[in-house]
Design a protein that fits this description.
three-stranded antiparallel β-sheet; cytoplasm; nucleotide binding; alpha/beta; binds 1-O-pyrophosphono-5-O-phosphono-alpha-D-ribofuranose; six-stranded mixed β-sheet; transferase; magnesium
Length: 176
Protein backbone atom coordinates (compact mmCIF):
# COMPACT_ATOMS: atom_id res chain seq x y z
CA UNK A 1 0.00 0.00 0.00
CA UNK A 2 1.48 3.34 -1.04
CA UNK A 3 0.37 6.88 -0.28
CA UNK A 4 -0.02 10.12 -2.13
CA UNK A 5 0.55 13.55 -0.59
CA UNK A 6 -1.65 16.61 -1.18
CA UNK A 7 -0.16 20.01 -0.36
CA UNK A 8 -2.17 21.96 2.26
CA UNK A 9 0.30 24.59 3.51
CA UNK A 10 3.15 25.89 1.38
CA UNK A 11 6.48 26.83 2.99
CA UNK A 12 5.75 30.50 2.15
CA UNK A 13 2.36 30.45 3.88
CA UNK A 14 3.88 28.76 6.92
CA UNK A 15 6.72 31.30 7.12
CA UNK A 16 4.25 34.20 7.00
CA UNK A 17 2.10 32.76 9.80
CA UNK A 18 5.10 31.90 11.97
CA UNK A 19 6.27 35.54 11.71
CA UNK A 20 2.82 36.73 12.87
CA UNK A 21 2.87 34.31 15.81
CA UNK A 22 6.35 35.52 16.72
CA UNK A 23 5.10 39.10 16.82
CA UNK A 24 2.08 38.20 19.00
CA UNK A 25 4.26 36.22 21.41
CA UNK A 26 6.83 39.02 21.61
CA UNK A 27 4.07 41.49 22.53
CA UNK A 28 2.59 39.27 25.23
CA UNK A 29 5.90 38.53 26.96
CA UNK A 30 7.54 41.95 26.49
CA UNK A 31 9.82 42.70 29.45
CA UNK A 32 9.71 39.13 30.80
CA UNK A 33 12.14 36.27 30.29
CA UNK A 34 10.53 33.39 28.41
CA UNK A 35 11.13 29.63 28.28
CA UNK A 36 10.06 27.89 25.07
CA UNK A 37 9.36 24.23 25.80
CA UNK A 38 9.18 22.08 22.67
CA UNK A 39 7.59 18.64 22.64
CA UNK A 40 9.73 16.09 20.81
CA UNK A 41 9.87 14.95 18.28
CA UNK A 42 7.39 16.77 16.07
CA UNK A 43 7.71 20.34 17.37
CA UNK A 44 11.41 20.86 16.71
CA UNK A 45 10.93 22.31 13.21
CA UNK A 46 8.19 24.73 14.27
CA UNK A 47 10.15 25.73 17.38
CA UNK A 48 13.30 26.39 15.38
CA UNK A 49 11.44 28.83 13.12
CA UNK A 50 9.27 30.34 15.85
CA UNK A 51 12.13 31.20 18.20
CA UNK A 52 13.81 33.21 15.44
CA UNK A 53 10.56 35.15 14.89
CA UNK A 54 10.43 36.15 18.57
CA UNK A 55 11.94 39.52 19.36
CA UNK A 56 12.70 39.36 23.10
CA UNK A 57 16.07 39.78 24.81
CA UNK A 58 15.79 36.73 27.06
CA UNK A 59 14.55 33.47 25.58
CA UNK A 60 15.57 30.00 26.76
CA UNK A 61 14.76 26.76 24.99
CA UNK A 62 14.19 23.29 26.37
CA UNK A 63 12.55 20.07 25.20
CA UNK A 64 10.44 17.32 26.70
CA UNK A 65 9.80 14.03 24.92
CA UNK A 66 6.33 12.60 25.31
CA UNK A 67 5.07 9.35 23.87
CA UNK A 68 1.47 8.35 23.64
CA UNK A 69 0.44 4.74 23.60
CA UNK A 70 -2.57 3.40 21.77
CA UNK A 71 -3.62 3.16 18.17
CA UNK A 72 -1.14 4.01 15.45
CA UNK A 73 -2.34 7.47 14.43
CA UNK A 74 -4.17 8.77 17.49
CA UNK A 75 -3.25 8.82 21.14
CA UNK A 76 -5.41 6.83 23.56
CA UNK A 77 -4.95 8.98 26.63
CA UNK A 78 -1.85 7.27 27.99
CA UNK A 79 1.16 9.53 27.80
CA UNK A 80 4.65 8.78 29.05
CA UNK A 81 7.65 11.05 29.55
CA UNK A 82 10.76 9.56 27.95
CA UNK A 83 12.87 12.73 28.43
CA UNK A 84 11.93 15.31 31.03
CA UNK A 85 12.56 19.05 31.11
CA UNK A 86 16.12 19.98 32.07
CA UNK A 87 15.97 23.75 32.70
CA UNK A 88 14.66 24.89 36.09
CA UNK A 89 11.12 26.20 35.46
CA UNK A 90 10.23 27.46 38.93
CA UNK A 91 8.90 31.01 38.66
CA UNK A 92 9.38 31.10 34.88
CA UNK A 93 6.91 31.94 32.10
CA UNK A 94 6.71 28.80 29.99
CA UNK A 95 5.35 28.66 26.47
CA UNK A 96 4.79 25.07 25.36
CA UNK A 97 5.40 24.64 21.64
CA UNK A 98 3.59 21.76 19.94
CA UNK A 99 3.25 20.73 16.31
CA UNK A 100 -0.33 19.40 16.37
CA UNK A 101 -3.11 19.12 18.92
CA UNK A 102 -5.64 16.39 18.24
CA UNK A 103 -7.43 14.69 21.15
CA UNK A 104 -5.65 17.03 23.57
CA UNK A 105 -4.47 14.16 25.79
CA UNK A 106 -0.79 15.04 25.31
CA UNK A 107 -1.14 18.70 26.36
CA UNK A 108 -3.60 17.90 29.16
CA UNK A 109 -1.03 15.47 30.55
CA UNK A 110 1.77 18.01 30.17
CA UNK A 111 -0.28 20.75 31.86
CA UNK A 112 -0.57 18.53 34.97
CA UNK A 113 3.06 17.44 34.82
CA UNK A 114 4.34 21.02 34.61
CA UNK A 115 2.56 21.92 37.86
CA UNK A 116 5.22 19.92 39.69
CA UNK A 117 7.87 22.30 38.25
CA UNK A 118 6.03 25.35 39.72
CA UNK A 119 6.34 27.76 36.76
CA UNK A 120 4.90 31.30 37.02
CA UNK A 121 2.72 30.67 33.97
CA UNK A 122 2.12 28.04 31.31
CA UNK A 123 0.69 28.83 27.89
CA UNK A 124 0.29 26.70 24.77
CA UNK A 125 1.32 27.50 21.21
CA UNK A 126 0.50 24.92 18.55
CA UNK A 127 1.21 24.94 14.85
CA UNK A 128 -1.92 22.98 13.84
CA UNK A 129 -5.13 22.66 15.82
CA UNK A 130 -7.57 19.85 15.04
CA UNK A 131 -10.12 21.35 17.44
CA UNK A 132 -13.06 19.22 16.27
CA UNK A 133 -11.31 16.07 17.45
CA UNK A 134 -10.71 17.20 21.02
CA UNK A 135 -11.50 14.66 23.78
CA UNK A 136 -10.46 16.82 26.73
CA UNK A 137 -10.97 20.57 27.25
CA UNK A 138 -7.90 22.63 26.48
CA UNK A 139 -7.28 26.32 25.95
CA UNK A 140 -4.68 27.10 23.29
CA UNK A 141 -3.14 30.57 23.48
CA UNK A 142 -1.55 30.68 20.02
CA UNK A 143 -2.64 28.62 17.01
CA UNK A 144 -0.93 28.61 13.63
CA UNK A 145 -3.61 26.93 11.51
CA UNK A 146 -6.89 25.15 12.18
CA UNK A 147 -7.22 22.05 10.03
CA UNK A 148 -10.18 19.90 11.05
CA UNK A 149 -9.38 16.57 9.42
CA UNK A 150 -6.94 14.44 7.50
CA UNK A 151 -3.65 12.88 8.50
CA UNK A 152 -0.97 15.52 8.06
CA UNK A 153 2.75 15.26 7.48
CA UNK A 154 5.70 17.55 6.90
CA UNK A 155 7.17 20.47 8.85
CA UNK A 156 8.06 18.05 11.68
CA UNK A 157 4.98 15.84 11.40
CA UNK A 158 5.60 12.20 10.50
CA UNK A 159 3.86 9.19 9.08
CA UNK A 160 5.70 6.20 10.60
CA UNK A 161 8.76 8.47 11.04
CA UNK A 162 8.74 9.58 7.38
CA UNK A 163 8.14 13.03 5.88
CA UNK A 164 9.21 15.13 8.90
CA UNK A 165 11.76 16.86 6.66
CA UNK A 166 9.26 18.25 4.13
CA UNK A 167 9.13 22.08 4.25
CA UNK A 168 5.35 22.21 3.59
CA UNK A 169 2.39 20.44 5.21
CA UNK A 170 0.61 17.70 3.28
CA UNK A 171 -2.39 15.47 3.76
CA UNK A 172 -1.66 11.76 3.35
CA UNK A 173 -4.01 10.13 0.88
CA UNK A 174 -3.91 6.37 1.34
CA UNK A 175 -4.08 4.22 -1.78
CA UNK A 176 -4.95 0.55 -1.89
O1 LIG B 1 -3.57 15.79 21.02
P1 LIG B 1 -3.09 14.37 20.95
O2 LIG B 1 -4.16 13.41 20.46
O3 LIG B 1 -2.47 13.91 22.24
O4 LIG B 1 -2.01 14.24 19.79
C1 LIG B 1 -0.99 15.15 19.56
C2 LIG B 1 0.35 14.53 19.76
O5 LIG B 1 0.57 13.49 18.79
C3 LIG B 1 1.76 13.76 18.06
O6 LIG B 1 2.89 13.20 18.67
P2 LIG B 1 3.40 11.72 18.38
O7 LIG B 1 2.94 10.83 19.51
O8 LIG B 1 3.05 11.32 16.99
O9 LIG B 1 4.99 11.86 18.56
P3 LIG B 1 6.10 12.66 17.70
O10 LIG B 1 5.97 14.13 18.06
O11 LIG B 1 7.36 12.06 18.19
O12 LIG B 1 5.85 12.40 16.23
C4 LIG B 1 1.91 15.27 18.15
O13 LIG B 1 3.25 15.65 17.98
C5 LIG B 1 1.39 15.60 19.50
O14 LIG B 1 2.40 15.54 20.49
N1 LIG C 1 1.79 13.29 11.90
C1 LIG C 1 0.60 13.47 12.47
N2 LIG C 1 0.44 13.20 13.78
C2 LIG C 1 -0.80 13.40 14.30
N3 LIG C 1 -1.24 13.21 15.56
C3 LIG C 1 -2.54 13.54 15.57
N4 LIG C 1 -2.96 13.96 14.36
C4 LIG C 1 -1.88 13.87 13.55
C5 LIG C 1 -1.68 14.15 12.15
O1 LIG C 1 -2.56 14.60 11.41
N5 LIG C 1 -0.42 13.93 11.68
Amino acid sequence: MGEELRLLLSPERIAERVKELGREISQLYRGRPLVLLGILKGAFVFLADLMRAIDLPEVQVDFIRLKSYGFSDTSAGEVQITKDVELPLRGKDVLVVEDIVDTGYTLAFLREHLRTHEPASVRFCCFIDKAERRKVPLELDFVGFKIPRGFLVGYGLDYAERYRHLPGVYEVLLQK
